[in-house]
Amino acid sequence: MTLQLEYSCTEAELKEAKVLQERQVYGRGSKWRARLVLFGLLALVLGGAYLRFKREMTPRERVWFVGMVVVIFVVLRIFQRITRRKTNGPVRLEFSEREVVIHGGGGRSAILWSGFSQCLESPNLFVLVDRTKAVLFVVPKRAFPDEAAQNYFRAQANQPRSVAPATTDEALVPGRFVSNNGIALIVKLRYRDYLSRNFTSWRMKGVCLGLLALVTGMIFLTPPPPDAVNSSLKTFLIMVPMLGGMLVLMMFIVPFISWHGEKKHLSAQHIVVTGEGMEFADRDSGGRVPWSTYKYYLENRWGFFVWNPRGSVWFMFPKRAFASASDLEQLREVLGVKLERSRWFYL
User: Fold this and answer.
1) What is the Cα–Cα distance from 333 to 337, expressed in whole angstroms?
2) Which helix (H) or strand (E) holds 271?
3) What CA–CA distance (Å, rounded) separates 285 from 167?
4) Is the pLDDT assigned to residue 76 strictly greater than 70?
5) What's the rounded Cα separation, in Å, for the pair 208 and 214?
6) Residue 103 pairs with which residues in a beta bridge?
7) Using the 8-state DSSP alphabet, how is residue 267 labeled?
8) Those residues with Cβ within 8 angstroms of residue 285's Cβ, 6 or more apart along the chain or in another chain
9) What pLDDT score does 161 carry?
10) What is the pTM of this model?
């Protein structure tokens, strides 16, 4: 049995899906438990900030600090609006006892039920969460023709992962995608790839520069106390190496935490790149993505990044996955024709 749905998610539905995920993460599904945890964390942060304000900052320093925080908050909100996913794109969904097939943006992805870690549900939505718990697939209940279709979807989505159809039902044959002009490669992300993304993306660099600017402003734009032992310049020269060491350490720790949390769910992806796009197959999914899904590309010494700021869609091709220099050159030619080159990867 196969059912088809066609719909477009609204911004309100996407926000509701994120709220459902937050409830699961912080409250194990309970709305009040999640609120209690979040308000508790907020109270600790505000309490710590208040004590530091009261004990360590002069009134003028407090004004500068609050002003900088407001500026950073406004910049982050503007960036969030720029990268916000479009909500008016239609999606066609097909699902059966074996898999979920998603058609949208000219591409197609087939994901086995075993590829989802859980299904969250509210009165308005079903939300399928992938294995890494980082990607949400939102299915509004209004898209279903009747209650029986919802019950069928619910039964398939909530079946035990050990019972859900897995890739052992069908052997993976990467060669089925290969065309005469295609570049075939196998990609399995490692810690070095997470590290490469972290050093390439301006998201982390922006955080580091923002902290450095905050410390610099606090030192030079506020008058030193009358009994200060060190000048503002000497204080700056003492603080910068300490802060720099902490930021460098953070550049290595953050990607390690992400990689360590996701590595057990990462599997080798068999990919074929052509002039039209790329086709992929891994342990739990397969499909094709046209180049129109992305807008920009960037090449550095470690790999190629393709992305679209709308929806924060991105993909990485590690250079170590290519069999020859000619394959690398062929990908450069394809990307140069299909996408815009950029030096500002920030996802």
Assistant:
1) 6
2) strand 269-273
3) 9
4) yes
5) 10
6) 92, 108
7) -
8) 109, 110, 111, 112, 115
9) 59
10) 0.77
